[in-house]
Design brief:
CATH class of one domain: Alpha Beta
Low-confidence stretches: 1-44, 306-311, 383-388, 528-533
Strand order of the largest sheet: 1-2-5-10
Shape: globular
Radius of gyration: 26 Å
CATH superfamily of one domain: paralog of FGE (formylglycine-generating enzyme)
CATH topology of one domain: paralog of FGE (formylglycine-generating enzyme)
Helix content: under 10%
Number of strands: 34
Distance between the termini: 76 Å
CATH architecture of one domain: Alpha-Beta Complex
Largest sheet: 4 strands, antiparallel
Number of helices: 7
Strand content: 25-35%
Length: 582
């Protein structure tokens, strides 16, 4: 029998698919390997008839977001711009991110060592603060966006793919139709003056149910910018110009004027350009059948909102962990309850955070021997994260079992064959009448990367490989045929047949619009604001003297002392000498 060879990153395989535009060299995927498995038998796969996905069909994806389906066919592209005349274009079918890529989604790629952190941009969302997890990641250059999409098994969308997903086949002006833009439909100039959640405007979904395709943040596309490209572009799957100095960005941002919201507008941008209102989403033309993750967060079933009382708005208590010097850089670290938010209020200081159990560990740095402050708030008062005002039962997808100790879903594959009692809960016999396949979970959704096919009557991988629907099923031989490997940065656990994260906090968490509620132990809907003023406190952050003091007393005169104020020097008029700030 043949032996599986080393298996490379998923995006490399996608690039070989027919009809896929050629990506720039910067989008080369990072190779990843899984254990070599010896096939002991050649599985006999019975052909299965499928209805296939329809326009707007949604599947959850490996990065914690979702993809929506855009069927093949023609659409009206372009508008009244000098560089965007109206014309007809035909595209092959594809899947595209339902939302812009969020801070939370992007942080996983950074955490596993594939992506680089975004540039901090004044006015943009605070990437490291969990409260902005559902905001679009901004401050990313073209290469950073392309690297993420490659890691996620796809690539950036072409202009044509982006525009069709935004306006539908009839070429409507805005994603929602022709109605005049308003702050109820999107986040543009004068509405919020900063980014918002990517699911904040469900009523402005495009005909394919893609969200946030106008306002909030512009988006990178795959294409090089050429003002006259439409005059010579192919009718079928236009790949964009062969080269250029600028890439094309599409959509609009929270600062965009009402005259700049038409989704046909093209904008050039240097590949290194970053902005507080520039993000991206990805296209996956042929979804990969990923193995399950070894751990995931439960969903909340039977959720109900309880009356919110003033007792929910309790001021968080910070636990100081102590000061430290690392390579002459000072740090101060403290813990705050999970569900808290924080904001650095002192110039010159910055903080990062990570989830540790039921707490958030915040690590701050700043100037030597200085003190600053961080405002910490209970999100039950600001309404940015779930609160205890929910009730329901944590539920796991088929193939997972709920672990009360960690309150997470752990992958526990079962026998693929029906037993004396038939298939286990969450499974049903397929059309062969012999093999159990996963069906809709307790949350009425399919496992990651799968959609519910009405003709088949069950969940099917988005690539149509119904025989490879192995979530939660112990079938190593078929798994070696169906799965090409794990996302880069994850390792394949051959014992459990799942993708293992390098750290617990790096598994994809909740879908945008949901967040982990530690009280219930499940992904729960975000609630509306209760109070914007209560439940906040200030935490002092103190920096050690980690580097040798600047020798201010060696400076010859007052002018030299003033010039070195940034080094902690101050002129003592009485002593007629330059001194270090005390």
């Amino acid at each position: 029998m043949k032996k599986l060879q080393a298996i490379f990153a998923l995006a490399f395989i996608l690039s070989a698919c027919a009809g896929t535009p050629t990506a720039a060299p910067s989008e080369a995927p990072t190779a990843t390997l899984i254990s070599i498995v010896e096939e002991t038998a050649v599985p006999t796969l019975v052909p299965i008839q499928l209805g296939g996905p329809t326009a707007g069909t949604t599947v959850s994806w490996m990065d914690g977001g979702s993809l929506v389906y855009v069927p093949a066919g023609q659409f009206t592209m372009g508008g009244s711009g000098a560089d965007s005349p109206t014309h007809s274009v035909s595209l092959s079918a594809y899947w595209i991110s339902r939302t812009k890529i969020t801070n939370r989604m992007y942080s996983i790629c950074v955490g596993v060592g594939v992506c680089s952190p975004p540039t901090s941009t004044p006015g943009g969302s605070v990437y490291s603060n969990p409260v902005y997890g559902d905001h679009p990641v901004v401050g990313v250059a073209y290469d950073q966006a392309a690297a993420y999409c490659s890691w996620a098994g796809g690539r950036l969308p072409t202009e044509a793919e982006w525009e069709k997903a935004a306006r539908g086949p009839s070429g409507q002006t805005y994603p929602w139709g022709a109605a005049q833009p308003s702050c109820d439909l999107l986040n543009f100039a004068g509405c919020k003056n900063s980014t918002t959640s990517v699911v904040a405007y469900p009523n402005s979904a495009s005909p394919y149910l893609a969200l946030d395709m106008a306002g909030n943040a512009h988006e990178w596309t795959l294409d090089w910018y050429n003002a006259s490209y439409y005059a010579s572009s192919p009718i079928q799957d236009p790949p964009g110009a062969d080269s250029g100095d600028y890439r094309v960005i599409r959509g609009s941002g929270f600062n965009s004027d009402i005259t700049q919201l038409d989704v046909s507008i093209r904008r050039p941008a240097a590949p290194a350009y970053t902005s507080a209102d520039l993000g991206f989403r990805c296209v996956v033309q042929q979804p990969i059948n990923f193995p399950a993750y070894c751990q995931t967060s439960p969903n909340l079933v039977g959720a109900a909102v309880l009356p919110t009382t003033a007792n929910d708005c309790v001021t968080p208590v910070a636990q100081k962990l102590g000061l430290a010097c690392r390579q002459q850089i000072p740090y101060d670290t403290f813990l705050i309850p999970r569900g808290s938010t924080y904001n650095v209020t002192s110039p010159g200081f910055s903080c990062t955070s990570r989830v540790v159990g039921e707490m958030i560990e915040v690590t701050c740095t700043g100037p030597d021997a200085k003190s600053g402050s961080v405002e910490v708030c209970n999100s039950a008062c600001g309404g940015l994260l779930p609160t205890a005002a929910l009730t329901g039962t944590p539920a796991c997808d088929p193939g997972y079992s709920f672990d009360p100790a960690t309150r997470q879903c752990l992958y526990t594959p079962l026998s693929a064959q029906a037993g004396p009692q038939g298939c286990p809960p969450g499974y049903a016999l397929d059309s062969t009448g012999q093999t159990c396949r996963p069906t809709l979970g307790a949350d009425n959704s399919c496992p990651m990367g799968q959609y519910y096919d009405t003709l088949y009557g069950g969940c099917v991988p988005a690539n149509g490989q119904a025989n490879c629907n192995l979530y939660g099923l112990n079938n190593p031989s078929l798994a070696s045929t169906c799965f090409v490997g794990c996302p880069a940065g994850f390792s394949f656990n051959s014992g459990s047949q799942c993708c293992q994260a390098p750290a617990i906090g790096l598994y994809p968490d909740c879908q945008p619009g949901y967040a982990y509620d530690p009280t219930i132990g499940a992904c729960a809907p975000r609630l509306q604001a209760v109070s914007a003023t209560q439940g906040c406190t200030f935490v002092s952050i103190d920096m050690m003297q980690c580097a040798p003091l600047f020798a201010c007393d060696k400076l010859p005169d007052e002018n030299a002392c003033i010039i070195n104020a940034a080094n902690g020097c101050v002129w003592n008029e009485k002593a007629n000498a330059c001194e270090n700030v005390k």
